[in-house]
């Protein structure tokens, strides 16, 4: 079973291929923030890794989706950030984002699938993350039943300079990450267990708690951040001959 970066080629490998399924695939250009498709977080967030609450007004439309991070006073978390989530869970397929992450130590820009006990499942997750302390690297990660694998990859450019295309292709037996058309890393079931449970698709920006400073850098008091998402696309993996 293989994935191909050129989806339109219609190539078949084994029993599967990529095809656009009008029922479950989508492409979102964020001309508006459609609340029938996207949830926008707005609540106090209590998580030991986050120094961030969520505010809906920090997710704005301005030639795409702009995710903001701002300081706040008088609350347990020192910052408020923006997080959007698709309403419907998605599974195997290609997940693609045109994104410009935020700079700043302690600031994390994320594009990921997640499911866990809140949704009545085990914790499976697949991540593309940018740490604002060094946006010349991309952080790749996934969880299988709560167990983490992760890796940093040098990009050869500064991701915070401009929007670029990033993607991962997820199948039952492989995970591949891409920058543009270039595959930058692959994991297969020969390397260990991979996520299997469909998840909710998120994009967000947040400030890390100080206990994560060795990973994220230390978030300075009063710092602001901004990330831009110009497009998100999901192309499901479907059985050959099903379309």
Can you walk me through this structure?
- With 243 residues, this protein is mainly β.
- It has one domain (7-239): Sandwich (Jelly Rolls), CATH 2.60.120.200.
- Helix content is 2%, strand content 47%.
- The chain contains one helix and 17 strands.
- It has one helix at residues 213-216, and strands at 16-18, 26-28, 38-40, 52-54, 59-61, 65-71, 79-86, 93-100, 107-115, 124-131, 137-144, 147-154, 164-171, 174-179, 182-188, 200-207, 225-239.
- The chain has a 17-stranded mixed β-sheet that branches.
- Strand 13 (164-171) and strand 14 form a beta hairpin.
- The longest helix has 4 residues, at 213-216.
- The model is unreliable at 1-23 and 239-243 (pLDDT under 50).
């Amino acid at each position: 079973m293989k994935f191909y970066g050129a989806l339109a080629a219609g190539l078949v490998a084994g029993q599967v291929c990529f095809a656009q399924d009008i029922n479950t695939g989508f492409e979102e250009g964020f001309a508006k923030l459609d609340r029938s498709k996207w949830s926008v977080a707005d609540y106090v967030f209590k998580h030991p890794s986050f120094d961030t609450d969520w505010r809906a007004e920090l997710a704005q439309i301005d030639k795409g989706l702009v995710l903001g991070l701002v300081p706040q006073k008088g609350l347990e978390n020192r910052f408020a950030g923006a997080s959007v989530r698709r309403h419907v869970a998605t599974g195997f397929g290609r997940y693609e984002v045109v994104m410009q992450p935020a700079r700043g130590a302690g600031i994390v820009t994320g594009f990921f699938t997640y499911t866990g006990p809140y949704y009545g499942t085990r914790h499976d997750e697949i991540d593309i993350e940018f740490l604002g302390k060094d946006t010349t690297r991309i952080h790749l990660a996934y969880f299988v039943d709560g167990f983490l694998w992760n890796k940093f990859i040098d990009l050869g450019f500064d991701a915070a300079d401009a929007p670029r295309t990033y993607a991962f292709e997820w199948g039952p037996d492989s995970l591949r990450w891409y920058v543009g058309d270039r595959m930058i890393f692959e994991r297969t079931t020969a390397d260990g267990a991979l996520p299997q449970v469909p998840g909710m698709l998120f994009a967000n920006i947040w400030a890390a708690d100080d206990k994560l400073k060795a990973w994220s850098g230390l978030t300075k008091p009063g710092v602001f951040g901004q990330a831009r998402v110009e497009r998100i696309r999901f192309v499901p993996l479907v059985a050959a001959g099903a379309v």
